[in-house]
Amino acid sequence: MLLDDRLPTPLYQQLFDQLRRGIEEGDHPEGSRLPPIRSLAADLGCARNTVESAYGLLVQEGYVKSRPGSGYIVQNVAFLQADADHSQAPGEGLLGADEDRVRYDFTYGNLEPGTFPAAAWRAITDDILLSVESTGCDAYNDPFGEESLRSAIAWRLATQRGIDCTPSQIIIQGGTQTSVQNLLALFDGSRDAVAMEDPGYDGVRTVIERARFTLAPCRVGAGAEVFRADLEASGARLAYLTPSSQFPTCRVMPIDSREAVLRWAERTGAYLLEDDYCRDFRYRERSLAPLASMDRRGRVIYMGTFSKSLSPALRINYLVLPEPLRDRWREAFANSYSPVPWLNQRVLARFMTDGSWDRHLRRVQAKNRRKYETLTRVIRETMGNDVEMLENGTGLHLLVRVRDGRGQDTLVRQARAADVAVYPTRKYWLDPAGHVSSTVLVGFSSIAEDDIEPGIRALAGAWFG
Amino acid sequence: MLLDDRLPTPLYQQLFDQLRRGIEEGDHPEGSRLPPIRSLAADLGCARNTVESAYGLLVQEGYVKSRPGSGYIVQNVAFLQADADHSQAPGEGLLGADEDRVRYDFTYGNLEPGTFPAAAWRAITDDILLSVESTGCDAYNDPFGEESLRSAIAWRLATQRGIDCTPSQIIIQGGTQTSVQNLLALFDGSRDAVAMEDPGYDGVRTVIERARFTLAPCRVGAGAEVFRADLEASGARLAYLTPSSQFPTCRVMPIDSREAVLRWAERTGAYLLEDDYCRDFRYRERSLAPLASMDRRGRVIYMGTFSKSLSPALRINYLVLPEPLRDRWREAFANSYSPVPWLNQRVLARFMTDGSWDRHLRRVQAKNRRKYETLTRVIRETMGNDVEMLENGTGLHLLVRVRDGRGQDTLVRQARAADVAVYPTRKYWLDPAGHVSSTVLVGFSSIAEDDIEPGIRALAGAWFG
Q: Which residues of B touch A89 (CB under 8 A)?
């Protein structure tokens, strides 16, 4: 092993890459021990920190386990190679993939480089930091978030999404997961169950489980009736739903199910948490309004995000709380500060009101629509008879089910051999028995527009060629 | 009531101010109902949102209560006028005061306007958003935080605080409260008790209570023996401590207590959470190193902040976790993203490594030292025989105990009549019986240097003149 400090790649990353390769290629077999940190640092002539960080990444990526007293033990990594999820380098997000290694990456979540409107953001940041407003940098701020941002959001929700709310019902938060984590503080884990779609977004499931709430899975996919029966039986006080485009199945909750779900909440006094994560991206004429716009009795908590349209690294989203729940939140967080930096809130508020937001969104919407159209067209052209697409003309991903019943690990592995990354869906199912085996997730949030057609052609070749 | 949209004050704030004054002056007596939102909006010719927001602020400030079905009911506000804590306007933080109303505000927490290094921050932000690095804006990032920032922090902890840790043990978080909230996810609220100093920082106490953990108070102030006995009896798995300067009493934990506390943790397998919130500000030669620097068995979780030196609105702090706990964190948050915006982390990392941090800290340290010296000198000069100061030559606040036994509400009220804000300490005590009644908190983080001497002279006049 050799480290070169003239390369742009940090030393710890170089070391991590070499060790990972060594493990994948069997140089360090399962059960073997990595050299002690001190001695490897001495051998390589680098700092202990460098080795420590590289080992830390290997642990994080699942290549080794750290056992107190016995060092770093190499793990069985066969499954890692079958599972594209683990190909990510640190810093690239949970579904991100290592671009050095995969030519066509149909990951979901990260955005295409250049999406973030850096120039406009920079200009507004400049302006705010030059102005008298920057005294806001020196104080703890409103625990609900900046009034200017809450007003900008409320106005858009009222005018564009049919959601009647006031700025005082809006709480600026630091992302879906922290929102849900904080919301759960208003419920009692020892008593209240939380219902959740199954399959569903694993990031939220983790938060609910980590907070030690009982999770009541509600099956989707086999028809809305099944979902309702599960919901009725759940005894839940809170139900997490993605009605506009169920994640990951892309099912749209039909009107009668929406009404039934609302009636359930009204009857039982439960709340519905509507995660409207892909509202910004709709590629067909007809689409249903948010569940929150149908809510007349204050049972729906609406959750919106800027991660898909602006930046996942911005860490800003928001909740819209019915008034009684808003008051409960105010009480529970009376002694707390806003979790979101003041400057970021101010810049976003200005961005949303000075015309930048509309320009930006139109640009991103147009691009995503072209990507969606290319993706679905090329899949139809190259694999039309062999696969089924699960999509609803919204969002930034779809599911592809292969009709011949091949397992998803096989599909992922075959794709990978052709330098294409598609992703297994198993982890979204709470009940593995319900899991549809020959289905993979194909995202288009991160891949470049021009890579979609050659990528799908390569995939078709790998699967059916 | 009249609203004027040519004023710089937003309409909802104008309305809030007028209603608040009306309530304080008895125009709206306790138990009366505010006009319905729609009709007041119609009367004033403003939007419903404006009224809604103003009413929301009144609820937030405790002037009215919202009762579903019966509207907004005016509350008894006599206590609000006695308690300086409630004088804050929204957006000014929990201990912030309304500067329009108090000439000399000895609040604690918010920083003096101009503290935040806006020019340097702007230049670095510019540079990063112009560079290729800004592709980090488009991706979900490392859940532990940016490597560059973790390295910069680890290096300073090792070289300046005697804490031997690697970047892989550092987790970038969004403030003390969210850090503690996340840390508690590694423990089990149904089984694990959390020990906490009594008195102690109420912001952390709220988080522990909100997460439904059993809180075991450990008395400070009556001698280290009592504290140790309480800790021994607590059965806690985690103890929250401020050894360098106990909050709010400014006691420094003596060496033998430190050793006893470490031994307790080693023996019981508990963890100590050291909140070293005022490490950056020490005005005397001799001061004890952090508890974490004495820790040989990995029992101390170290927590550091940028809120006192840089900006409370930045919402960045960090935890240093012992390795086994770090691994537990990695597992619990495997499916989570960093809660802190990427850009802010990158800018701070650059700020800490390009020389800006050292310059900034020297400037703030020098200023706070002058403020501390003026404050203690003038208190001695004007009230030397009548009061006792509780302080240890660190931090940004001290306690003043009046020897004649007057209650703290009286002290706060008398100060307020002379246009001076000092703060009651009652809320820091979990057990009100232990509370030292004639003691108030005097902070100097926010007041201008030149206001300290006249402010303390006005206070002395109000109390003893």
A: none
B249, part of any domain: yes
pLDDT along chain A (465 residues), means of 10: 75 86 81 89 88 83 78 73 36 41 92 92 92 81 93 92 93 96 95 94 94 92 74 95 93 89 96 96 83 95 96 96 95 90 96 93 95 97 95 94 90 95 91 77 96 98 95
Which residue is associated with the tokens 């140790």? B228
The predicted model scores a pTM of: 0.79
Cα distance from A43 to chain B (closest Cα, Å)? 19
| CATH number of the domain to which B439 belongs | 3.90.1150.10
Say yes or no: B339 and B433 in one domain.
no
CA max distance for chain A: 69
Same domain, A298 and A158: yes
A121 inside domain = no
Sign of CA pseudo-dihedral A219, A220, A223, A229: positive
By residue range, what is the domain housing residue A295? Answer: 126-354
| Helix, coil or strand: residue A458 | helix
Q: Tell me the C-alpha distance between A427 and A265, whole Å.
A: 28
Q: Which residues pair with B105 in a beta bridge?
A: B421
Whether B337 and B244 map to the same domain: the answer is yes
The number of C-alpha atoms within 13 Å of A37 and in the hemisphere containing its C-beta is: 17
pLDDT beyond 70 at B247: yes
**pLDDT for the residue numbered B80:** 47
A-chain residue closest to B145, CA distance: A91
CB of A15 closer than 8 Å to CB of A2: no
Asked whether residue B195 falls in the same domain as residue B328, the answer is yes
Q: Evaluate the omega torsion of the peptide bond into residue A29 and state whether it is cis, within 30 degrees of 0.
A: no
Chain B environment of A446 (Cβ under 8 Å): 138-139
Pick the residue from chain A with its C-alpha nearest to B110: A139
Tell me the HSE value of A338 on the side-chain side, using a 13 A CA sphere. Answer: 35
The number of folded domains in chain B is 3
ipTM of the complex: 0.77
Q: Looking at residues B427-442, what average pLDDT do you find? A: 82
The verdict on A350 and A361 lying in the same domain is no
Structure token pair of residue A67: 């056992």
CATH of the domain at A2: 1.10.10.10
Q: Which pLDDT does position B78 carry in this prediction?
A: 61
pLDDT, tens only, B184-234 = 999 999 899 999 999 999 999 999 999 999 999 998 876 667 788 999 999
Which residues of chain B are within 8 Å of residue A342 when distances are taken between CB atoms?
A: 311, 313-315
Q: How many CB atoms lie within 10 A of CB A221?
A: 18
* Residue B421 DSSP one-character state: E
User: Do B135 and B257 reside in the same domain of the chain?
Assistant: yes
Say yes or no for a CB contact (<8 Å) between B139 and A110. yes
Q: How many CB atoms lie within 10 A of CB B65?
A: 14
Question: Do A138 and B112 lie within an 8 Å CB cutoff?
Answer: yes
pLDDT-derived band of residue B49, with 50, 70 and 90 as boundaries?
confident
In a domain, A262, yes or no: yes
Q: Residue B188: its chain A contacts at CB < 8 A?
A: 212
Q: By CA distance, what is B346's nearest residue in A?
A: A313
